[in-house]
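User: Before I run my own analysis I want an independent prediction to cross-check against. Here's the chain; please return only the structure tokens and, at the end, one sentence I can use as a sanity check.
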Amino acid sequence: MDALFVKRAESAVDPWSGQIAFPGGRFEHPDNGIIDTAIREAREETGIDLLVQSRLVGTLDEVRPSNRPNLIVTPFVALVEDRPIPKLGSEIEEAFWAPLRRLERGAFETALKTGAK
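Assistant: Structure tokens:
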């Protein structure tokens, strides 16, 4: 099973500038709730429409980022049949699919540091 990761674009105003992350972002009006936020942010950042191209499975445990402990992040999980090709939004420098099994072994972090695929 693979997961979609993004590398955030470098920006002085972004506290997560240049980090590897999952697509996501902040609640904005007129979002009707955090699920709408997750769907909108995925579409803005990757061009992937979760309503059309996926099946939403649920959420993971909420987390508080160490650089913004007053912020609550609610991760959503969505499954897609194929790996859609991302169309990058302005906040994203790169998007890529990576096998989750590599994360378990720690190989993914090593590959990122060395530039290996």
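Sanity check: The first strand starts at residue 2 and ends at 8.
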